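Entry for the shared binder. Reason: the reviewer on the internal report wants the predicted structure included alongside the sequence.
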Amino acid sequence: MILTAAWHEDLGEPLLPTTIASRNGDGWELTGTKICVPAGAIADAFLMPAAIEGGSVGLFLVRRTAEGVGIEPLETTLGDPQAAILLALAPAELVAEGYESLQWAYDRAVATQCAVASGVFAEALRLTAEYTKERKQFDVPIASFQAVAHRAADAFVDTEAIRLTSKQALWRLSVDMEASAEVAVAKYWVSFGGQRVVHTAQHLHGGVGVDRDYPLHRYFLMAKELELQLGGTTRQLLALGQIIANEAV
């Protein structure tokens, strides 16, 4: 069984869903649309947030075969099986209710995504280091040029920042400590620093970087997807600002 999470909607705020959950006897029905659902075209069931009538929110389980569920496969730059999920009074099971439950699930979704991103950027940097050691200009490796070395060093710093902030967030979650701020910091580095890493990798590879017979383009495209999934740079800065504003002075 393949289970995936459907966080995204057109308005782009995962914790403020516009999908509506309404009571139907002892059960629930969902109406709304989720977009860019990872593995949505092949998943058997979906976890998704929805607004509950009365002002609350909940996390619901919807099965692919349920009545009122429509699947629209999406064409993506990565070619992964994403889909839009169309819900028209689709039967659903309530898994958890309340904003705290939604934040709990969101933090873990983002933190695990940051771990994936850490590996993506590390491999893009490794490919770049290997290429610049082998590629010669004026009979010397281009890695020996100061400008190239500086760009690569900056990319290394960003990659380490992503790795360390992701580990910090995951560690705090693993021991049941509050980690929303740490998760937002890690995702900020993934969204902002990660783009600098892959742009540097493309730049230092020159034309080879955009050759689809060479693997670097996959990491560039994956980085763009990871930048925006579950909230990009602006969303994380807003979340951090709210956390700071809520702290007692």
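Summary line for the report: The mean pLDDT is 93.
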